[in-house]
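Structure first, sequence second, as always.
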């Protein structure tokens, strides 16, 4: 697996002498984005599965199960760190998975956004579709390069 130092070194052509700082900022940013998103999405999924009241618009006493899942997911993440799991490797792994999963999701979003039977008058126009196709293409190329680099490294 890629070490944090290797990942930071890979940024040197783009970030120069600030590569380590840029990498550290990216990892911290990923953690700050990932923790609430993962805990929240897990809570929504579990709450929907069991038919519990869900949503951040409810107070904790109104949606106890929903908030319990958020707290539980956060505690599990914290516990993994206490058990010796390397948080940097976990964040890198999460970023890689997110990068791979995002590719088909962007395509799905583009298809839904362009579908007038779903979106009605709010269906995406030519500019939006073009931006989504460009985004999909760039993300696909990056994902393929990342996969290729990991296979042939």
């Amino acid at each position: 697996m890629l070490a944090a130092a290797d990942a930071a070194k890979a940024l040197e052509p783009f970030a120069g002498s600030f590569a380590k700082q840029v990498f550290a900022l990216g990892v911290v940013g990923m953690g700050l984005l990932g923790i609430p998103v993962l805990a929240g999405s897990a809570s929504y999924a579990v709450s929907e599965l069991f038919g519990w009241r869900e949503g951040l618009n409810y107070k904790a006493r109104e949606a106890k199960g929903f908030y319990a899942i958020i707290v539980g997911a956060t505690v599990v993440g914290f516990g993994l760190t206490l058990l010796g799991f390397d948080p940097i490797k976990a964040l890198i792994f999460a970023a890689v998975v997110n990068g791979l999963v995002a590719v088909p999701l962007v395509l799905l979003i583009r298809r839904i956004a362009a579908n007038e039977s779903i979106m009605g008058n709010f269906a995406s126009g030519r500019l939006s579709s073009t931006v989504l196709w460009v985004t999909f293409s760039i993300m696909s190329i990056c994902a393929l390069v990342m996969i290729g680099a990991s296979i042939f490294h």
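Margin note: Residues 66 and 118 are 29 Å apart (CA to CA).
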